[in-house]
Amino acid sequence: MSIQSRLVLSMTLVLLLSLLVGSALTYEHVLDKIRTEMQAALSVGVHTAGNAVDDREEAIDPAKRLRLVVDDFTGDRHLRATLRASDGRILAQSKLLRPEDPAPDWFYRLVAAAPPLQADLDLPAAFRSVGTVALESDAHNEVAEAWSDLRLLLTIMVVFFSMVLGLVFWTIRGALQPLRVVCSALLGIGEGDYKTRIRPMPYRELEPLRHGFNGMAARLEEMSAQNRVLHEQILSLQEEERAELARDLHDEVAPFLSRLVRTPP
After folding, report:
1. Averaged over 154-182, what is the pLDDT?
2. pTM (2 d.p.)
3. What's the rounded Cα separation, in Å, for the pair 243 and 97?
4. What is the average pLDDT value for the chain, to the nearest integer?
5. Which has the closest alpha carbon to 146: 114, 90, 101, 83?
6. Rounded to 5 degrees, what angle do the CA atoms 121, 122, 125 make?
7. At residue 2, does pLDDT exceed 80?
């Protein structure tokens, strides 16, 4: 595996680990937020409904008043009010505000697994003959809001991580480019091209490497030139020795051959 691939893989693992940790922390925050919102909504609802039936003057028509109290919760994001008769029949029930962008069922089950909160109103004696009013929390709207926030957060994280990976890849690629230049120059030296030189590096940390390589290449080129001169001198000396040896042989052997030719058999 190349250095570039290894570094990119390492950065990817770190970012994925950060994403997992962030998701776990976000999950805990969502659970706490939903629990707090439901408890606060139920407390406010009980207080508001209790104030609505606390006035004795409203007890002239208890059934109508209780229906109006229940109807006041229609359109609420977190609470559902139900008026039940003493035999358990539902006399009136408010309708929750439906979320515009509901969360998926799996996400709702994941973050809203706890049973809904419930509370029965402590009705004055004049209203108890009509029935009971119960408030029940419903987390669908809060979960939908959390789902929307989570999607936005994940989108931001994915875009951020993609930008980081792209920047890391581009930086590593640029940082390794001078090493590719050095490798190419070394191949040239290995093939006998001692005129190879490395141009100024974009990173000052690599300048000692460039100076060292260029100095080595210059010395190799000088030694190669000296070797060529020495080789030429050796060839010249060999030619001179051959010529001198040929002259010596000619001077020594020629008279002897001449006498052999003159002497009759």
Report:
1. 84
2. 0.63
3. 116
4. 83
5. 101
6. 125
7. no
Please state at what angle helix 140-190 crosses helix 3-52, rounded to 10 degrees. 170
SS3 163: helix
DSSP 100-121: SSPPPHHHHHHH--SPPPEEE-
Residue pair 143/103 in contact by the 8 Å Cβ criterion = yes
**Chain mean position to CA 189:** 41
Selection from 10, 3, 39, 41 nearest residue 177 by Cα: 3
Neighbours of 66 (CB within 10 A): 25
H or E stretch at 133: strand 132-137
Q: CA 20, CA 150: separation in Å to the nearest integer?
A: 13
* Residue that the structure tokens 């052999």 belong to: 260
Tokens at 61, concatenated: 């028509």
Query: Does the structure show a pLDDT above 70 at 57?
Result: no
d(CA 76, CA 69): 13
